[in-house]
């Protein structure tokens, strides 16, 4: 039996649209493992069509995979704290913008409110970063989060060191394993991986 059987997982998506195709199968893995997955989205997901897909198609896919209604506003996310609904909160993909806001206690999106609610209850928040400035200005914010209590990272590495030397992306296929480890109070290792060599 999976360690996630019967757990409730908040799954927040921020606007790194290029990684959605990698992320969606991992949400299904969580559901297949017996978890209830509550999808939470930023305004970018609700309003932006890109070459990677339309806003409507991604929203529809999230509902189909999880069988849940999307949380799309800060007021909808706020009760997650008092209700203690979530056993673990995932942010995947977690953009540089969301990373910087979380590291500096700025709560201006449903995803960040859900993370704040989870941390209020001393429960784990799992971050799968996808940012072009992870080794640039955002390195300081990632460092703050690495040192923070109850925050765990999906293993990550440089995805294109020659073309984008500051870019960092998590291995989305390790989200489930990172959640299992986080619920035991440990960081999945190794944390730093050669993602660009991974296929």
TrEMBL record:
InterPro entries: Dipicolinic_acid_synth_B, Flavin_trans-like, Flavoprotein. Residues 7-171 form the Flavoprotein domain. It holds the Pfam family Flavoprotein. Coiled coil: none annotated. It comes from the Bacteria. GO terms for molecular function: catalytic activity. This is Dipicolinate synthase subunit B. It comes from Brevibacillus thermoruber.
């Amino acid at each position: 039996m999976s360690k996630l059987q019967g757990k409730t997982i908040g799954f927040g998506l921020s606007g790194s649209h290029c990684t959605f195709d990698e992320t969606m199968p991992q949400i299904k893995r969580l559901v297949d493992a017996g978890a209830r997955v509550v999808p939470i989205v930023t305004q970018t997901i609700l309003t932006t069509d890109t070459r990677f897909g339309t806003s409507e198609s991604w929203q529809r896919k999230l509902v189909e995979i999880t069988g849940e209604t999307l949380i799309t506003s800060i007021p909808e996310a706020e009760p997650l704290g008092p209700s203690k609904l979530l056993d673990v909160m995932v942010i995947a993909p977690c953009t540089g913008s969301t990373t910087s806001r979380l590291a500096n206690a700025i709560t201006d999106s449903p995803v960040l409110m859900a993370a704040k609610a989870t941390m209020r209850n001393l429960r784990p928040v799992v971050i799968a970063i996808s940012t072009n400035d992870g080794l640039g200005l955002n390195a300081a914010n990632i460092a703050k989060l690495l040192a923070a209590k109850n925050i765990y990272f999906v293993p990550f590495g440089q995805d294109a060191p020659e073309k984008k030397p500051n870019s960092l992306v998590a291995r989305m296929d390790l989200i489930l394993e990172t959640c299992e480890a986080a619920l035991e109070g440990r960081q999945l290792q190794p944390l730093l991986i050669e993602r660009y060599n991974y296929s």
